[in-house]
Design a protein that fits this description.
- The chain is of the alpha/beta class.
- It has an eight-stranded mixed beta barrel.
- The protein starts with 12 loop residues before the first helix and ends in an 8-residue tail after the last helix.
Amino acid sequence: MIRNPPPQRHTSLRSYYTVIAVVVILILVSGSLIASLYVNKVFRDNTRALQLQNHVTDEIAEVRNAIWLADNALNAMLINPQQEYQLTVTRNLQLAENSLHKLKQKTAQESLALSGLMHDFEVDFGILKHDILELMEKRKDSEWLYPMLPFISRTLLESNEEFELAANLALQEIESNDNARYETQLYRQVDEVRDLWRELILNFRAIIIRFVSLNENQNITQEDNIRILHQRILDKLADLEKMKSKGRLGFETEDALEIMQFRATKWYQDYQELKKLRESNIWRADLEYLDTKIRPMQAHVFADLTTLDKEMVALSSRNVALVEDAASRINLELWGLSAIAISLMLLIYYMLHRLVLSPLAKIAETISTEGRNIEDLLMPGKGSREILTLINSFNSLRRQIHQRQIALQHQALNDSLTGLPNRALLQDRLEQAIHMAHRQNTSLAVLLLDLDRFKDINDTLGHPSGDNVLQQIAKRLLGCIRESDTVARLGGDEFAIIVPDTNQGQLKEFVECVGTVIGQVIEVDSHKLYVAVSIGVAFYPHHGDDPMTLIRNADIAMYEAKRNSLKYMIYNDSLDQQNIENLSLLGDLRIELENPTGQLQVHYQPQFELFNRTVTGVEALLRWEHPVRGFISPELVVSISEKIGLIAALSDWVLETAISDCAAWQQENPGIKVSVNLSAMNLQDSDLPENVSSLLTEYKLEADQLSLEITESAVMNDPVQAREVLQVLNFMGVELVIDDYGTGFSSLAYLKLLPVSSLKIDKSFVIDMQDEENDAIIVYSTIDLAHNLGLTVIAEGVENQQVARLLRQQKCDAAQGFYFARPMAKYDFLRWLNSRYELVVT
């Protein structure tokens, strides 16, 4: 074996790196110090300029804001002359003046250019303030403010009063003459003319109000109304004129008609004159004053503020130029430092290449060529102390890795608990067995074994005891197989066996042997345990020609054997088709629960009290209308949901839907409760009471309006856990009902121990009880015994009047079935209920 030569003196990399680091630090620190001093000087100069800019900008903003506020208050005062608006105008003008004085002081101290602009602004603002105050003083004179009001009071008011007087006189005369039959029609026509006139005047008053608030000549809706109303008045007066020509009017009414015709025409002419005056912009003097004096000066003031802003922008530009100059200098310094840094990096790379990379490359080359003798790696001619340490450490690590590889290879292909081959090794051996069977034209069998109720051992005695059972099962399986067979553990309580060169006849004996040895007593910690097994079988080449297909088909057969309580089952195509369809249904069901599209629905079948003939509740029934397969039976949906653990999500969806629907109809139909069916798995869920309580709280439904129906088999599956869950639900106030009574193996004596208040007789006993004497006896005895135990009895499956009559005679409390009503969707049920349907049982 080649040994390393005597160690030579090598320099450490640390010394090289220390020298380089010191040089780099000195260069960077000196460059940073020079740049910092220059940046500080520029920063101080720029800070002073920025402070001036900020102060001036803030004061300009204060002045502009105060002027805007004063202008807004002035506009509001012109529309609604309140004292608070005048105070707001005065206060904001004073604030603007105060800010102006501060601005003048700061610009006078810092910049001569700004001082001249400030003088112009101060003069313009003084004029604006004077004009605004003068306007507020002039507005106190109403004749100055509204010069056209006298025209309205002298002209239009006179026509209005005379028209009203004439109309009233005509109506009084018509009232006094009640002998003629046509007088009533005449009265209505004159009264309608007066009403139209009053409506015209109301529109006119609205226009006057709008004139006061509007300065621009805008089209007002009431103007069109006045035109239409005036035309209608003239038409009505023309009708009266026709009646006058026929001599149907009294003397006073004829005089009143002439006055109304004259005043209607004159009023409308005066109204047109008023509109012309309005268009002449002299309707309100304050608006003309605002447009001619205040607005132009206000524009001057804002122009001055804009000029000040531009000057500040120019000042900011000068500051930016100074900063850019500083940035350019710093940029040059950074480029210099970068060039130095690049040079140092090249130097460091050269040193790394000479002292590290080159020796490492030689080490890698030596490793690749030495192969198994890598532990005898020689030191390259050049290198550092760290490289020598690396080589020695690597030689030691190589020996450790070689030892661990052997252990890891065994762990990768064998189960750590039983020592049997695992899934990976099983698949490899199955591929080899398939190739062998193909060459020899023979068949082979793949068996998948799953221990029944193994979970109970883990849950009861603990996982160590379960592991002990698995180890004993593995030893027994090894005792059953031939030397050419392979037994493997796939995980959990699942095992697999490869049996080459066999047929169905030989396999039957082998399967019986496996079942016998597994079924023998197993002693664990003084406990004598018995374990059963379900076996699925798939044959090559009949059931598949690759490992994945054979294992999958054997797995399908195994689950079918477990479901049907068989010792073993051989795969056939019908099992696969059924499994594929169920898998497809499961996928569709999961998607529908996550993103509902309306395929899943809850229908409600009413329950009737047989004595008072009223609907007291409904049973919630799941319906699934699949878009491809059509109606899916609820039993199939529940069955496949329980297999993959989807039953909890499905039950939550049905519970939430039923509770929300029941809460929705309580306001109009109080007292109609809803019943929801629970599965066996629901009763094993300790969180069920909390989920129900949360839903009742969310939808504000009282607990006594919800009934939960449970089957006998669901309770007997785990009586202790079921009783605990039912007691919590009963304490909450939820009614509990035993469903499908008579189909299980429990007794009324045991049910008495459960907190249930009702039981439902299964429809298989009710549907033909009028013809089957035995069914009738079972129903009658169940009713009597249940009543003696204080339970309410509900009969389901009532499909004719004769059965309903017999149940009522036997004092059955309630019933449901097609005779009363079929299951209905929510809105169909509510419509049916609102139609006040009454059941008649004779």
